[in-house]
Structure prediction request, 500 residues.
Amino acid sequence: MQLRYWKVRPYVLTAGRTRTRQPLLVHTLVSVPYYDAVFAAGLLPEARSLYEQARRTARSVAELSAVCGISLGVTRVVVDDLAATDRLLVHTDHDNVDFRLLERLRDGLRKLA
Amino acid sequence: MRSTDITRRTTWRQRAARWLDPTVARWDVSPPETPEPPPPEDRGPGPWPAICEQFALRILASAYQMGAHLEAVEADEQDPERLERLYRIDHANTRIRRHAENLQVLLGRRVEDADPQTVPLVDVVRAAASAVEHYPRIRVGHVVELAVVEFAADDVIRVLTELLDNATRFSPPTAPVTVSAFVTEDGGVLLRVEDAGVGLHPDHLTQLNALLTGRPAAPVALDPAAHLGLAVVAHLAVAHRLRVALTTRPAGGTTATVAVPGALLCEIPTPGPAAAAPAPPPAWPPAGHGTESWSTPMATPHRGTDTPTVRLATLDGPAAEPPPTTGPPTTGLPRRVPESVRDRVPAPRPPADTGAGSPPEAWPDETAAFAAGVSDARTPTDGEGRQ
Prediction:
């Protein structure tokens, strides 16, 4: 899905930034804590479509990138910007990783190999 | 012959004098030098514009090629550091494209842009910013929701690029430059570029404004290197009847305004916004409902089964194709459709197979049989659905 005119280069959407304040992985879930229509109307197209898409249910960064047709690098930075003003909630799920399950999975895969 | 000998001798003398005493005035040398350039100019442009144009076209072609490769690599890149480098390359490539385009404009040629289209003003602003060296300082202010028509969009982008370039170049390296777009009384749009630079000298300002209207009052005694972009702006402003002006801000700095006439504007094309905001809903509800059905109560799935719109639409179309396509992607509800279709398919198929034996004349019969099969298949499914 191509939304922008091709002369609008990706770096201009993030003012050249590629790094985020917090780790945003492909599978990191993002949601909108409270939806503000006025705020959404004032956003630039990319931020707006990301905000709208994350509104209903929590979505992963990769999913948002695909749905909105925005490259992953740009999606990360724009999501990070929105999260910095608490407009988006980033679900850090690092504590929930079940290492025992992963180890068992790894062992099972090794048996298969 | 003689005069040149004299001038040569004087220049040699002057040079020697200056070498001995650097304070010797330079104006002694310049008068004899200036009469010489006119003869080559009088010979006419010759083949050079055509050659320059060819070079510009080749540079453009290379820039396009590089841009296409960059786009693909940028989309896949996940490492921030490498992505930043790619952005820098992309930025340099975009500026190369801009300069090649400007060269064509100055040669009086119309630039053949790749994939021209109606461009929303927000994208006009951002496309212009993309080709400016100090783009991170550009802030997008309030931009009215209108678009520039296809044949003028790229030229408006070029005009704005040069004005933004001037604004960022001649203002403090930390000060932001703001772009905004407002509707005017006559139905046009006013693009404003505000900078916080040192501003321009009043005499300078009038000269530049005269240049921008395309009617320079006097031979412009401005440094061409510093105002390279404004020559491009003047060309394009005249071509599209854009009114470009520079004004000094009382608070310091300069405001550049571009009045885009109403004839060059239109609503943002519906496919664009439809794809941006409302279209995802039509495309995504199937998947959205699928995910919701896990988290929300049973009410929504039921509604999904009752509404026949999706299923009927697929059945009305080519009957052979939709069942496989609808089957796999949808999870809970469509399962019933493939089953029911599978049950009914044997009935329509036999007539179709017999019809295949006698090709040309049997065609109406075949279609009739097919239609009957479809209607047969449909009525029982409805019944099942209701039960």
In short: The domain at 115-270 of chain B is CATH 3.30.565.10 (Heat Shock Protein 90).
